[in-house]
Structure formats: C-alpha cells, structure tokens
Model the fold of this input.
Amino acid sequence: MEISQKNREETIEKIRNVIEQCIRERELKQKDILKLCKDEGYSISQSELSRILSHKMILGLYPAIAFSDALDIDMSAVLYPDRWRRRKWDIFVVLSYGSILLL
Done:
C-alpha cells in the first residue's frame, strides 16, 4: 500500500472548506456558530472566528475541533474518506427487527 504525502496547507484548507460549506448550508451567522461552540464548552472569540472565516488566520487545531464538534462534522470522514469505518476496531450498531446487531 502506497502512502501519499499529506500537505499541511491542503489539509487545513480541506477542513476549512468543509466547515465553511456546513455553515453556508445551514445558513448560520457568526453569532450562531459562537453559540454552538459555547454550548459545547468551547471558547472562541468573535474576532478569532471572523479572522478564520475571512482566511486572515490559519485554522488551528482547537478551533477546528470546536467547529467540527459544534457543527457535528466528523473530521475522520473528511480526512480519510477511503478508509473511514473500515478499521477493525470500528463497530457498527444496526437496528434490525427490534434487535441490535454488532457487525
């Protein structure tokens, strides 16, 4: 299996794009995002959010985690779409005919 090289800027941009797409699709304003982050226990300032969304500031780890948690974005699926849910420790719970099946 060949491992492709990960580019720092491209990876950050990929995450930023998914976050921005989610914000647009849900028609969220900055105050809505800040409230969602606060409700999840994250402290992001309005100026920090504004600088990130206007691409004046690099998206750091903490804001990326805060936004993905607050917006319910699975970063694992974003970063690794080909191998997501194919790892041996992933367990799927499927409701079928009133019973739970572990696959």
Observations:
- Confidence is low (pLDDT under 50) at residues 87-98.
